[in-house]
Amino acid sequence: MTSTETTPSTAGGGTDRRRWFALAIVMTAAFMDLVDVTIVNIAIPSIQREAGASFSQIQWITAGYALAFAAGLITGGRLGDIYGRKRIFLIGIGGFTVASALCGLAVNPEMLVASRFLQGAMAALMVPQVLSIVHATFPAHERGKVFGLFGAVVGLGAVSGPLLGALLTEWNLFGWEWRSIFLINLPVGVAGLILGSRFITESKAPRALKLDLVGVALVTLGLLMLLYPLIRGRELGWPLWGYVSMAGSLVVLAALVAYERRKSARDGSPLVELSLFRVKSFAAGIAVQTVFGVALGIFFLVWTLYMQMGLGWSPLKAGLTGVPFSIAVSVAAGMSVQQLVPRFGRKVLQAGALVMAAGVLLYLWESGHYGLGIAPWQMALPLVVMGVGMGLIVAPLTDAILSEVPREHSGSASGLLNTVQQMGNALGLGLVSVVFFGTIGDHLRPDQVGPAFADAFRNSLGWVAAVMGVIFLLMFALPKRPALHAEGEQAATEQKEPALVS
To answer: So what's the pLDDT on residue 263?
Structure first.
């Protein structure tokens, strides 16, 4: 394969059937990443029980992946532009497979946490290349069909991840218990690596930006200084150094802004394009995306802990309970983009925030009303309401945020959106220490565990509902009638990582 710029006309000729094999390979990799994010949540209680992980280590198992993924997304995309998307994709899928093996073979919680960081970093190399390869491989008239297939893969990954995680954990294949949720990636990853090296055509950007490794380091350091004290603070008795570290994270992030401003003036290739924040809708959208990530980070982890550790449900029962939520998100997302937003604009997103908040409050009431005897069918109504609200938001949000962004910055803007959403997710997972574990006593008798986890779940739902109210207010700064530029829509499609993977 050549390592020169590949155009759709050269790589995607009508007689070149190889591109369909390439599509299957990159779609499988995208599916593997989506499933791996959602599959872990459902297995967390089993990991805590079988591996002896502490509550803070449970948070790091999920937050570590999100943090490494967020920190590396933009750089991963640029590495593909500079060194070749096929090359970086193969490195990413190979590294992701190795990291999955290390997760499955982890001998202690510390090794599992470290392996999850590595897995997130490898996903940051792999995922940005997927749609870039599609764009470079297929001619324009075929991309609509291809992106439709990608949407179907995203939906399938969101629905099947929790169910697959539940089944693998329940079946306890070969006595592997929770380890099978990671080890199942090995044959898929090896096949993707072998077939990808044969069928994917190499491509590069005609003019690639330079890497901003200092920016990545400052972002990662600032978030670690904020998240580490949040996650460990409760176990350590909230020491003084934790507050100093969290305050210091603001200094580091301020240094990032100053550095990015200088780098933009010097060579025009900053990690964060600061001029974008002069666009009111984009600045507000970044806030919405970050805060929405916080809400999702809190909810999905505490929801799993509530069902399995609080109510004592099996992983399969918990996984099946989430099916109505996933279906509602998919249906509402399709209606939102195709029918509602073109007619009602911003009001659809704001209605989504209010509907999701209503679902959360209904869930809170039902949890208190039915207590530990609540049944899955009783959870269906609040979950469907929440799913409808989330679906009204996630699909059109990126388009609304990018609608007033200058065309030449649409790629940078969409990449930054995905990054801050993942960072918000990591922050939400860190806040679980405060809003969930912070209300649970340290030494509970067996008969106290259920009521304590149920109370903590309701406390967390109150926080999530409040966050959705904040999101509703922030959305007033979004444009009333989003009308995305064609280039912006294309860039958003190429770089978007769906919110459901949080």
So the answer is: 86
